[in-house]
Amino acid sequence: MSDIETGPGGPGEEIPFMQRLLDSPLVLLVIGIVMPTVLYILWGVMEIIAIPLAS
Predict the structure, then answer these.
(1) How confident is the model over 13-44, as pLDDT tens digits?
(2) Which of 13, 32, 48, 52 is most exposed, with minimal Cβ within 10 Å?
(3) Helices (H), 1-55
């Protein structure tokens, strides 16, 4: 097996999924763009809902 699938402990020990996921720069870039975008959208929706209705 390759080093990606096995850790330094030997051929029987796999690298955990989260470690493989967070070792990818592309995944970190996507998380860094998507998370703030989603949070700002949710924040904006909450602010719009909080505006009182005109009578």
Answers:
(1) 899 999 998 899 999 999 999 999 999 999 99
(2) 52
(3) 17-22, 25-50
Residue 28 lies in a domain: yes
Q: Is residue 6 part of a domain?
A: no
Counting Cα atoms < 13 Å in the Cβ hemisphere of 53 gives 1
The number of distinct structural domains making up the chain is 1
* Cα–Cα dist 34/38, whole Å: 6
The verdict on residue 7 lying in a domain is: no
- Nearest by Cα to 31 from 45, 18, 47: 18
